[in-house]
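Hypothesis: this fold can be encoded by more than one sequence.
Test: take the structure tokens below, design a sequence, compare later.
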């Protein structure tokens, strides 16, 4: 509301000095606002670069202690684990998801043993890193079946909880899975394990580099439009969130991030649940490759990240989370 008129009111007054800009700033970022994704790969002594994501790596488990130690020193509250799975371990049912010796399970145990509760661990629940067709669930007549998939996701969630995962993050977009996963966690004594639902996940072309990072790139048959959300819709996002809240989600995710700031705001205006934005791989690639080094130093990344806070996000999953020293300086 503008009261008074020129020249009584000069909005430039409070912008004039740095101290004053700091005094009236409406949003800010700290390391507490970030979740760092970490890609895991089999083998020893590996720090593998990912072509489409400069500055992001896949790490073998013997490097994990070092990676987590750095994350803790940087003040990050949570990391998210994503496995690169060898094609040999993939099958139609994504069986490797339920192998208690899989990469994610081993990583959770290692991290918990060494770092206890110094940092939170979040794990995706979905079958796409493990299926030979790259889809998030079980295919029947070329269609991802909902209820059969949910049965497997319940087991995947329980396994991750047993290993010590703190935040179960279903990213599969099956209907009804949050309620079923909550029930099963509670029944088995994991009442305090949180659920961060990828409630609003769009069928997006911005996930390309991630699929490269987890090794599902060439495999995906068709697309995910018949289970992930249509990017032309926003009312539907509210319906998804309201269902997941009723089913017991502790937090909800909007994904991708930057093209969906309106959705973050819409959800925040309608529900008072913590909202997490996922600045996805395609956004990272665009920002990292698309602007020259000088522009990054001059704040392009910071400007993009602050927009999530302005829209109402409580936290951001970002591949920049381990590079904040430079970005927030
Ligand atoms: C798995 C999953 C995806 C991403 C996170 N979890 C890919 C997909 O759904 O195809 C994408 C993350 C990114 O692009 O950074 N379901």
């Amino acid at each position: 509301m503008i009261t008074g008129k020129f020249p009584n009111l000069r909005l430039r007054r409070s912008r004039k000095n740095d101290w004053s800009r700091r005094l009236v700033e409406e949003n800010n970022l700290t390391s507490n606002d970030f979740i760092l994704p970490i890609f895991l790969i089999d083998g020893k002594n590996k720090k593998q670069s990912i072509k489409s994501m400069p500055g992001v790596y896949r790490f073998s488990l013997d490097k994990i202690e070092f990676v987590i130690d750095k994350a803790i020193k940087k003040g990050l509250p949570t990391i998210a684990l994503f496995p690169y799975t060898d094609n040999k371990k993939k099958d139609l049912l994504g069986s490797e998801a339920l192998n208690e010796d899989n990469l994610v399970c081993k990583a959770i145990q290692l991290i918990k043993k060494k770092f206890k509760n110094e940092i939170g661990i979040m794990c995706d629940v979905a079958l796409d890193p493990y299926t030979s067709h790259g889809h998030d669930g079980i295919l029947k007549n070329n269609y991802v079946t909902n209820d059969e998939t949910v049965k497997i996701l319940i087991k995947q969630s329980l396994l991750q909880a047993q290993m010590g995962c703190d935040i179960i993050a279903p990213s599969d977009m099956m209907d009804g899975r949050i309620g079923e996963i909550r029930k099963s966690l509670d029944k088995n004594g994991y009442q305090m394990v949180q659920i961060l639902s990828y409630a609003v996940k769009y069928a997006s072309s911005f996930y390309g580099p991630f699929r490269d990072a987890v090794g599902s790139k060439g495999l995906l048959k068709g697309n995910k439009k018949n289970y992930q959300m249509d990017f032309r819709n926003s009312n539907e996002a509210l319906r998804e969130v309201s269902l997941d809240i009723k089913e017991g989600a502790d937090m909800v995710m909007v994904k991708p991030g930057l093209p969906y700031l309106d959705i973050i705001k819409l959800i925040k205006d309608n529900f008072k649940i913590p909202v997490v934005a996922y600045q996805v791989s395609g956004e990272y690639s665009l920002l990292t490759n698309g602007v020259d080094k000088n522009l990054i130093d001059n704040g392009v990344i910071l400007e993009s990240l602050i927009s999530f806070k302005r829209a109402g996000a409580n936290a951001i999953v970002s591949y920049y989370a381990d590079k904040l020293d430079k970005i927030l300086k």
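The longest strand covers residues 194-201. The chain has a mean pLDDT of 95.
Hypothesis status: open.
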